[in-house]
Amino acid sequence: MSAEKFDPFIAEWVSFSKNLNYNLVEKCLKMAQILEYPELNISKYVEKINEMGNSLKIKIGQVKNSTYHISMLNEYLFDELGFDGAEEDYYDPGNSFLNVVLDKKTGIPITLSIIYAEVAKSIGLDLQIIGFPGHVIVKYKEEIILDPFYSGRLLTIEDLEEILTRNFGEVVEFVPEYLNEATTDQLLTRLLRNLKNAYTQSYAYNNAMKCTDMILGMQPESPEEIRDKGILEERLLRYDKAIPLLNKYLELQPEADDADFILELIKSVREKSNL
User: Residue 226 needs a FRET pair 20 to 30 A away by CA distance; which of 134, 194, 210, 257 works?
Assistant: First the structure.
């Protein structure tokens, strides 16, 4: 599945997302432009974050203490500017778009963490964004773990275990690898999967399909995305496209937990389409 097979917007995304001259913020804004906001001015929002960073830098002055910097970062973003976690409308697609989060000042863990880490750079804080299961967080060096969704609060290992239990029950245990830094591609993929799920739940299958194609542009052989593309083709009644994708998923993942479900879906599609 190469880029030239995609529509022009997907090809544009693949080119932009692989371009090392653009940073994570710019790529997130490009995602929003392609999916929902074609008139979005990327440089305007980049400048908005830069202005936030410059304002914070002035407030801090010449103080070099990193703990003080984190405290001031929290005070500035959450107390003064009013950024907050979107608990009431968590699954609203807008919470995954950086421009929307910057405008309304509410977001989900991943978008707030991206903004938090970017503003921190202006004061010399090198924060790592951590793709923790179920809840993106940030880390300073190896000893300080922070949660921008909850006003930058300090997290302990017990807090992290609680997050896992809340999201996955007792089946997922904490391992240190969960605190590894996420790559740009991992964060973009996570954002796109959030959006794909939100669109699917609201029956916006064409938008969900675009998210899947954007992920496949970065990861052409992802079994999960090939499967989801097949499922979306079925829901869009494009049965002739659904079956090859679902079959390919089973070829790639013959022992998958959902293999029986996919086999039943293929059988159903064949019956409905006489294929």
Answer: 134
Is the domain spanning 3-179 CATH 1.10.10? The answer is no
CA distance 252 to 87: 37
Residue 44 has pLDDT above 50, yes or no: yes
**Bridge-partner residues for 95, per DSSP?**
none
Contacts 24+ apart (CB under 8 A), 154-160: 160/132
* Euclidean distance between CA atoms 132 and 147, whole angstroms: 11
Beta carbons within 8 Å of 76's beta carbon, 6+ residues apart: 52, 55, 56, 59, 119
Which contiguous run of DSSP H or E holds residue 157? helix 157-168
Tokens of 18: 């692989």
The pLDDT score that the predictor gives to residue 5 is 52
Amino acid at 200: T
| For residues 31-49, average pLDDT | 96
Least confident of 15-29, 136-150, 160-174, 207-221: 160-174
- Name the residue ranges covered by the structural domains of the chain: 3-179, 221-273
